[in-house]
Amino acid sequence: MATSAYDLLEETRNSIEEIIPKMLFIKKEGKGRAELHELISEVSVLFLKLRQANRIIFQEEDRVKSETENAKIPVDYTTLQLHNLMYEKNHYLKAIKGCKDFKSKYPDIELVSEEEFF
């Protein structure tokens, strides 16, 4: 018995690959219609197994995608916070640079010291 959907897929594919040449041989010989119908029924069941394995694989893929999306939410939130902080930092740096580069209309006026100001 297959342990996973991929093993089931492989096992079923191998079985189909074994049966199809037998069917072609019987068809070319023109004999054994009962055996041919039996092989057709067998292949039909195997195709249903293929569809089942395919469905299981797609469901697993959807589950993994959902888990990935859920894991990305905190990362996206943290990244957004980082970008906001970087934007704010750059804004403050530009404001500081603007203040330092400020040219007064009266350059000859001296600034008052901090002690005297307070």
Automatic annotation (TrEMBL):
The keyword Nucleus applies. Keywords: Nucleus. GO terms for cellular component: THO complex part of transcription export complex. One of its GO terms (molecular function) is mRNA binding. It comes from the Eukaryota. Transmembrane segments: none annotated. It is found in: Nucleus. GO terms for biological process: mRNA export from nucleus. PANTHER family: FMS INTERACTING PROTEIN, THO COMPLEX SUBUNIT 5 HOMOLOG. Belongs to the THOC5 family. This is TSA: Wollemia nobilis Ref_Wollemi_Transcript_267_723 transcribed RNA sequence. The lineage of its organism: Eukaryota, Viridiplantae, Streptophyta, Embryophyta, Tracheophyta.
